[in-house]
Design goal:
mainly alpha; 8 helices; 2 strands; 74% helix
C-alpha cells in the first residue's frame, strides 16, 4: 500500500510537467537549438508550483521523513539487546560496535541525500525566486546545472553501495563470489562465510572468558566440530 501511495503521489506531483513544459527556442542566432522549459500562465503559478510541488514535496518533505524514520530506527537499534548465551565484556563490545555501524550508515544515508540534491534545488531556487539572472550566471548555469542534475540522480545508486559497504558479511560474500570465478551456479555462502563468522565470534568469547576467569577450568571452545571441518574441507581455510 505504501509503494502504491508513493507512485500515485509522485505521478500527481509531476503531472503539471506534461502540460506546462515545451520545447522553446532560447538562442535567436541558432533557432534549431531548443530547450525543454516550463511555460506557466503567470509568474505566481510558476513560483507556487516550484515551492510546493518541487521544493517541499520532492526535497524538504522526503528529507524530513527520512530523518524521522531513521531516528526511530536508531532508537530501536540502540535500545535493543542482542540475545546471546555469554554475557561478557567482549560480547558487549561486539554488540556496541555493530550498533555504531548501523547508526553511521543511517547518518550517511541522510547526509548524502541532502548533499546530493542540494545543489540542484539551490540553482532552481535562484532561478525561480532570485529575480533577474545576471550575465555571469547565464554563463555558468549551463555548465553547473547538468552536473547538479547528475549529482542528484546519483543518489538513487548510492544507498545500495552504502548498505554493502557497511555490511561485513556482504563484503565477504562478494569476495567469495569473485574468488570462486563462477558467474553462474550456487555459492555455498552460509557454510563458507556465515558459519566462519559465527565460529570466529564464539572463539573470541571463549578466549576472553578463559583469560579473565581463573577459576574456570580450561576446556575446548564450544564450536561445532562438524561446521569447522566443513569450512576447512570446502574453503581451504
Amino acid at each position: 500500500m505504501m509503494i502504491v501511495f508513493i507512485w500515485i503521489f509522485a505521478i500527481s506531483v509531476t503531472t503539471p510537467w506534461v502540460f506546462f513544459f515545451d520545447l522553446v527556442v532560447v538562442f535567436e542566432d541558432n533557432p534549431h537549438v531548443r530547450l525543454c522549459l516550463d511555460l506557466w500562465p503567470n509568474p505566481l503559478s510558476e513560483v507556487l508550483y516550484f515551492v510546493i510541488g518541487n521544493l517541499i514535496f520532492c526535497y524538504i518533505l522526503p528529507m524530513v521523513l527520512i530523518t524521522m524514520c531513521y531516528i526511530l530506527i536508531w532508537i530501536k537499534v540502540w535500545r535493543r539487546s542482542i540475545p546471546t548465551d555469554t554475557q561478557d565484556a567482549q560480547m558487549e563490545r561486539m554488540q556496541q560496535k555493530s550498533k555504531v555501524k548501523v547508526v553511521k550508515m543511517l547518518v550517511a544515508v541522510v547526509i548524502l541525500f541532502v548533499l546530493s540534491w542540494f545543489p540542484l534545488y539551490l540553482i532552481f531556487a535562484r532561478i525561480k525566486l532570485g529575480g533577474p539572472i545576471q550575465k555571469w550566471e547565464e554563463d555558468i548555469f549551463p555548465i553547473v546545472t547538468p552536473l547538479a542534475q547528475w549529482l542528484g540522480a546519483s543518489n538513487s545508486c548510492i544507498n545500495p553501495i552504502l548498505y554493502a559497504f557497511f555490511n561485513k558479511k556482504y563484503r565477504k560474500g562478494f569476495v567469495a563470489i569473485i574468488k570462486s570465478r563462477k558467474c553462474c551456479g550456487r555459492l555455498r555462502y552460509y557454510e563458507t562465510i556465515a558459519l566462519q563468522s559465527s565460529s570466529t565470534s564464539t572463539r573470541k568469547s571463549w578466549h576472553y572468558n578463559n583469560n579473565n576467569h581463573a577459576s574456570i577450568t580450561r576446556r575446548s571452545p564450544p564450536v561445532d566440530k562438524n561446521a569447522v571441518s566443513f569450512i576447512f574441507n570446502h574453503t581451504g581455510v
